[in-house]
Each structure stands twice: as C-alpha cells, then as structure tokens.
Amino acid sequence: MSFAYSDVPDQRGKTAIVTGANTGIGLEIARSLARKGARVMLACRDGDKATAAIEEIASGPEQADLDFLPLDLSNMASIREAADLAKKEPRIDLLINNAGIMIPPLGHAIGGAEQQFAVNYLGHFALTGLLLDKLAEDGGARVVSQASIAHRGAKIDFDNLDASQGYSRTKFYGQSKLANLLFAFELDRRLRAANSPVTSIACHPGVAQTELTRHLGVFGKVFGPTVGFFLNTAENGAMPALQAATDPEAEGGDYFGPWGLREMSGATSGKAYATKTARDPLLAARLWAKSVELTGVDPGLKPA
Fold first, then answer.
1. How far apart are CA 51 and CA 42, in angstroms?
2. Residues facing 69 on adjacent strands
3. Contact indicator for 122, 113 with CB cutoff of 8 Å
4. Are the CB atoms for 30 and 238 separated by under 8 Å?
5. Cα–Cα distance measured from residue 202 to residue 149, given in angstroms and rounded to the nearest whole number
6. I want to staple 82 with a disulfide (CB 3.0 to 4.6 A). Which of 71, 116, 164, 284 is the partner?
7. Is 121 a catalytic residue?
C-alpha cells in the first residue's frame, strides 16, 4: 500500500530528532513532523543554518515546537555531547538518521575512516548506540536510517575504509549507504532478539533534486532544477522517511522508497528493494563489530 503526506498521522506528544534537518530532505521531514504536532529537534552542525530552518518552519500557519541540537557527525565528542543533551528530553519517539555528505574530496573523520563512511554511517551508528536506552523508554522509539539506491552494486571494503589504497567518490558514497542499510537490518535483528521495544526501519529518497545536484557538480547547479522536474523534489524525497517514522503499519526491518520509475521518484512511498548483500547477516555482523571498534560505542546488543 502506498503512503502519502495525507497519511501521516497526528504526532502530538511525540519528540523527534532529525539529523541534517536544516536543508533539503531533512528540512521537509522536520517540517512535516512539526506540522503534525511533534516536537522536532533539528540535529545539525551549523547553528545559523539550523536557526534559519527553524524560523522558516515556524513561519507556517501551525504552531511548531522546534529546537536546535548541535551535532557534528564527523566528531565523536560532538556526537557524545548531542546524545547527552538529547537524553535530557522527557522522551524521544523518533530518531531519523538522515544527514549525509556526497562525493566530496577525500577527507577523514571518525576512527580515521574516509569521511563519507564516517559521517553518513559511523556517526549515526554511534548516535543511535548512545541513545538506545533513552529510545527504549515510553514504549519504544523508531530509529529510521536513510539509505540510497546507490547501495545497489556497492560493497564494504574493510581493507580500505580509510581510502589509503585508493579513493573513488561514488564507490565510497555507495559503500556508506550500503552500511546504513546493513545497520538498519542488523539493528532490527538484534533489537528483536533482545525483546527491545525499539524499532529499526530503513528508507531511501529515490534520486531527489538536492541529491542529483550534488552528483552533477556545476552541471547540476545549472540544470538540476530542470532535470529534477522528472525526478524527486526534496518534499517527495522526504516521503519514505515519513512513512518509516509514522506509518502505523510499518514494522521493524521494513525498507521504504518512492513508488515511481525504478524507485527514483514519486509523490508516494512503499516497500523498496534491498539487495541480497544488504540483507547479509554475516556481513552486517562484521560491519557492526568494526563500527564498535572505530567509534568506541558499543550499543550493547548481542547478535541474533
């Protein structure tokens, strides 16, 4: 069954954390949840951009409960500080791990890992692990992991996570998104095995205009809006995450994406395709162990 904006249920009384909520898809996720009555914490690195986003959302007709949560996903100290601040909230019902960077020049972050793998995946792994006890309160929260169709054909190169043996921007981006999907499914398996009330669900935005523009560089800046007409807007790209976060029928281990041409676009969302590699429990367990090593954060969940 497809899911649309009109299907997002009332969120009053709930608190959501949305990473990367100051722009693009994250902004639309935050906006929709706020319009439905949720308290939304915009977890972002740039305070000025977060404030601007808060002001933009608050300028709408609905009363919005919004706050800024400082978070730099490339920095473990910042992640720990953000988790400590978030734990002071009376409750957390939704953790939407949306933030990401795409095909940047080579850089490094957490544990010496290449920065796309570090920011897109490791930072979210650590944040989720640090908040797991809090997320289990009040009947259990949903953890939503933003993946990508770029996970198709990707692999985890455990011997080259720091790119010391070569760096391909697109391959490392795909690797980071495959890691997000592996994590979402493995987190679901471990949560079920522990009888935890927390639910892990994955999603992807298709090829949204914001994402496409980054892929195409200067060409994308000029022609992105035109090409994006045929693909997904940021608003439509937010739909799968909103389904993962709010659909009453969604279950742990689900994976949602746009219902359109090859899952690239669409104003509604539904079940998406994940590769056999993304669903490999042995690969996911190896990735989990490596993530604990690189971040120093152990979520404390045993393998299923």
1. 9
2. 43
3. yes
4. no
5. 12
6. 71
7. no
User: Alpha-carbon distance 156 to 84, whole Å?
Assistant: 31
Q: What is the pLDDT of residues 196-224, one digit of tens each?
A: 999 999 999 988 665 444 544 543 444 44
The DSSP symbol for 23 reads: S
* 255-260: Cβ within 8 A, 24+ apart: 255/147, 255/181, 255/184, 255/201, 255/202, 255/203, 255/204, 256/3, 256/201, 256/202, 256/203, 256/204, 257/149, 257/203, 257/204, 257/205, 257/206, 258/205, 258/206, 258/232, 259/2, 260/206, 260/232
Burial of 7 (0-12, 13-18, 19+ CB in 10 A): middle
**Nearest Cα to Cα of residue 181 among 287, 262, 268, 258:** 287
- Exposure on the CB side of residue 263, measured as CA atoms within 13 A: 19
**91 token code pair:** 């409750």
The one catalytic residue among 5, 121, 167, 173? 173
pLDDT exceeds 90 at position 225: no
- Closest among 105, 130, 108, 106 to 118, alpha carbons compared: 108
For the entire predicted model, the pTM comes to 0.93
